[in-house]
Amino acid sequence: MATGVYISKFLAIAIVVLTVSSIGGIITMIIVYENERIKTQPTAPPTTNSTTPYPAGPPPNMRLPGNLIPESYDIVLQPHLYIVMNNTTNQSLVFTGNSTVYFRCVENTKTIVLHSKEQNVTAVKVTDLDKEKIIKVDNTILYSNESNFLEIVLDSVLVKDGNYSLFTAFEGELLDDLAGFYMSSYKKGFIATSQMQPTDARKVFPCFDEPAMKATFRVSLIHRPGTTALANGKVIGTTLEVIDGETWEVTRFQTTKKMSTYLLAFTVSDFHSIGSTHERVDIKVCSYSCTFSTDAYFISTLDQIALPDFSAGAMENWGLVTYRETALLYEEGVSSTSNKEWIATVIAHELAHQWFGNLVTMKWWNDLWLNEGFATYISYMGVDHIEPTWNIKDLIVLNDIQTVFQVDSLASSHPLSSKEDDVQTSSDITQLFDSITYSKGAAVLRMLADYLDERVFLNGLRKYLQAFQYSNTVHKDLWEYLQEAVDEDSSHIKVAEVMDTWTKQMGYPVITINTTNGAVSQEHFLQNQTSDYDFEWHVPIRVMKEGEPIKIATLDKKVLMPDFLSEDGKWVLANINCMGYFRVNYDPVNWDRLLSQLEMNIHEIPIINRGQLIDDAFNLARAKHINVTLALRTTKYLWNDTEYIPWESALRNLDYFILMFDRSEVYGPMQAYLRKQVGGLYQHFENFTMFSTVPEQYNQINAISVACSNDIPECQEMARMLFDNWMTNKTSNRIHPNLKATIYCQAIAAGGEKEWEFAWGKFENATTATEKDKLRYALSCTRKIWLLNRYLEYTLNPDKIRKMDAVSTISYIARNVAGQAIAWNFVRANWNYIKGIMSLGNLIDGVTQRFSTDFELEELWQFLTDHDVEELHLAIRALEQATERTEANIKWVKENKQTVLEWFKNESRREQLN
């Protein structure tokens, strides 16, 4: 609602008349004074320093002042890189270029403030387009702080509503830092490519590098003859030109749609492409090897390119989507079914961005989830529509909801929509690219779509996209257009009122249900402390009772609800299919009834809820809402379940027990229990594994992994045999692609130097990215510490382990109990190199997951003390979360170790008695 001050019509007219009269009087006085001054020609007063009404210096915060609005750019870039080298040529990693930005002034100013980073700006020219004259530049200042401001001080004023242009010439380096305009290499040669998101367009050319500063872009690339240039638009012409005595190709591209700077992209390579023309769009998939293609959308061209080095999984640049090779390239017989599903999901994610992010963009990075949460959620819908047999939409529960629950139950979490002022620097922005933004964003949108009804939800989205195309939004805009669709459907849901509780507050609730009296309440769920916040959520809950259909209810405060009252001793189950973003706890009697049902007939409980009961129970136990033995009881029925979601939920939670206890006396009895529970699952898949057929890949992989790592002899012998056959035959590998990663890992873990060296040789010579990834993971499984140490050293050499893979490789090694301590020591010893690698948050998370001792906590604090804030700026949040998690782990182990040990021992004795 707008606010303001209101006055009477008569008073307003009187004020206007008085104002006009006063201005007229002042003008008359000035004219009379000037005439008299000219007649008398008085002596000029002493010269004083003139004052200016216009602000000088950079803005007081890290944001552009907003007084200049870019409308279009003309950009010329010339990478001097040689794509293919010969013995007589020295490689050049320089790029040069120029840019002209045409902008409108909305507030008088004598300075132009925009962004520039790590460039040498060699020429600046400002033109008044209305008067067709050059404006003199008094000074150019590049600020070295994190603002990356380039301030251009002018001799005269840029006036409101005036139209101007700024020409800059510049030069920079094509580094291998995977940011801005950078250099990548592969066996055949080199490639110049780009990654602008979130704030690296400024590394390429001076620009207004904020997402709301949308403009059109006309790009020309000057490149070596025989190479191919790509950018966001269609090629409109290529010519040969002589520049500085050398012949170059000049490729000019169609002007883009109005878009943010972070969506710009260009590449120069000798890659091949395969084209596909559809009704509305030409699609090309580019790579130096194999290809994968897909249908698309509403602009005239869509290029998709697989890059040898890429920091993200993929990037949604409008018209030129860039990918890691593993996210785009699929080879039948080599890549696994999970590789195919991953590729389809990533492509769907990037195509979803063409609407959510590219067409309609968040105004500022604090609402990044409007881009990433939507793309994540819609990717599941898109793939499920194309391949419903994959049931991929259910995997959001495992891949996103259960995963982000862990982070969002920490006191160091953050809301989906932060305050704008809390997100200022590039470091602030980069840290928002986390699981809260992606996974929680997707989870709450899934919950909202279910609550409103998907038909109403999609109708509101269409309205939202239509209203804000080529523009920017805040989260309130989304609520407004969803509300319009809700009202049209005659529903009484207040969208903003509901959703503000999920987007403006961090964390999520645990819903506690007492089925003996129907009492339902909520509280902020935290893993290791009580909440200091008075949070309250508007919670939609789907509930079913034994033998009765599903109902939906809503909860705000503690209430008595008949739908949650048990009748005739029947169980009650809430949050059906995990459509809500919350955990559920019950009274002990209802827990017993649910677990008894699982023991008697698992099919009465939906598959997703079987996984939910396990995941909720383990996390409720860690937060002391229930006893740890109740959580462990939820896994006892699994000997009779072959479904993936329940097993994966159990294994992920038992993995926490492994991380906490695999260096203690608890681990032996725990392994004995796991051998007993996985026996049936392994036998279910055993024949399929031996004959390299795969009926259901994910749980077959679980069966092999759990059986082999817990010393089931038949499994270990099978893995050794299959790997030995490959080592003997060398060129013939009959291990099914779906099982390669786990078979390789188990064989290398059981083997020694010979197996490791064989796998390393295969890794070096692999031509398929998915095969290289499987081998790279498996190499971390060895128990030989000297081999793990050598492998860690390889991550410092991009010729051995690419920079984009360094973080995940170190994390793989840290997951290995033999490698955890050396990986942590390695990170600390090489921090000056490692801090320049993307995904520091993932790295810190990976190498500290096992931390559960006072000594390890002290090491974390010492690490924080040894480095200043500037050195740690991209890892601060991850280190805070690691510290909080370590404190929680220490406390949990001290409180539960003996109880857990006795439980596993008792289960082992019971098995022996049977």
From TrEMBL:
Annotated ranges, domain ERAP1-like C-terminal = 571-887
Signal peptide, first to last residue: none
Q: Name one GO cellular component term.
A: plasma membrane
Return the cofactor note field. Binds 1 zinc ion per subunit.
Record site: Transition state stabilizer: Y438
Catalytic reaction(s) noted? Release of an N-terminal amino acid, Xaa-|-Yaa- from a peptide, amide or arylamide. Xaa is preferably Ala, but may be most amino acids including Pro (slow action). When a terminal hydrophobic residue is followed by a prolyl residue, the two may be released as an intact Xaa-Pro dipeptide
Question: Which Pfam families does the UniProt entry name for this protein?
Answer: ERAP1_C, Peptidase_M1, Peptidase_M1_N
Subunit field text = Homodimer. Interacts with SLC6A19.
Protein name, as recorded: Aminopeptidase
